[in-house]
Give the backbone structure.
Amino acid sequence: MNTHAFDAMGTQWCFMSERAADFDAAEQFVRRCEASFSRFSPYSALSELNRRRAIQDAQLTELVEVAMALHALTNGAFDPTLGDELSALGYDRTFAPELNRGQVSRRSNLLVKTAGDITELEGEGSLDLGGIAKGWTVDAVAMRLRQESGGGVLVDGGGDIRAIDGVWNIGVGDGREVILKNAGVATSSTLRRRWEGGTHHIVDPDTGQSSAQTIDTATVVASDATLADALATAVIVNPQLLSDPRIPIQQAIVRARDGQWWTTPNWRVEP
Amino acid sequence: MTMTKRQTRGHLANVSVVVTCAFAFGCAYWLAASTQPPIPAPRAPKTPATMTVAANAPRLVAKPPVAGLVRAPAKRRIVVVRRSRAS
């Protein structure tokens, strides 16, 4: 097994490939994605879009379209237009627990338009592609490594994981596991990136405040890491999505606020 | 063999003493038996208090955060290649 580990996007990355692959080139791709999608860098394409309200960037526009499609799919529970709300909560730079909190604005009324490789913003607010940008990058790298190597690959970007070919045991929950085959898995939790007083980074679009639902951690298995990341966040904001047949969750394991772990009925640990 | 009158009186006296003692002993035994409290029947073993409480107490059934979810399976010790975690 060939492996390659490094730090990017504020977290740890790991590539695993059954056959040899150009890991260095793949790492550079991750770093370019970080430079383009970061809300914390004033030089990123996303920051330029939020500042100038329009940008011509094919990769960013593709990601924005995916994010807005998932926004619609989850009936707004996953909301990439809450950049201003996150900044108001104090999440305006790479996470640090001592950040001060400001005033929280109400729900964003940001209108996002895409056409070709151009993205435009209308109204107040800003885009935040944090988690989904990571999932999208994981998927893109996994497909790239799979194409190069011709064998099974697994890409782990800080817990957002995509497997293509092969059978992979992935640890989830509190000492449990899931078998991943040609799928993605991601975990969201209000227990991470949390400040004093209980404020955390997952914002409820209806209130503009940190979500206070019955679930504090959700791990979702879906067809890819992009979808898994967005849905893991969405079910924390709206747990009822777990039983919504329109939502393409393959399996999920969640932690209720009392510490008990629950799964969707189809949860399986065997291939 | 003939007994003298004196000997006969001595025998009768002995017999009367024996009969009197036997009668007195029999009466005393009867009296004691009739006034002794009955021997208690063996007691049934006590049911442990905890069992009674458990049987009568309402069961605490954890409620899932969303209808339709089931309890997560027990943990197992297996080797995982990576771990999905919130970051």
Chain A touches chain B through 49 residues (CB under 8 Å). The first helix of chain A runs from residue 23 to 37. Residues 95-106 of chain A have pLDDT under 50 and may be disordered.
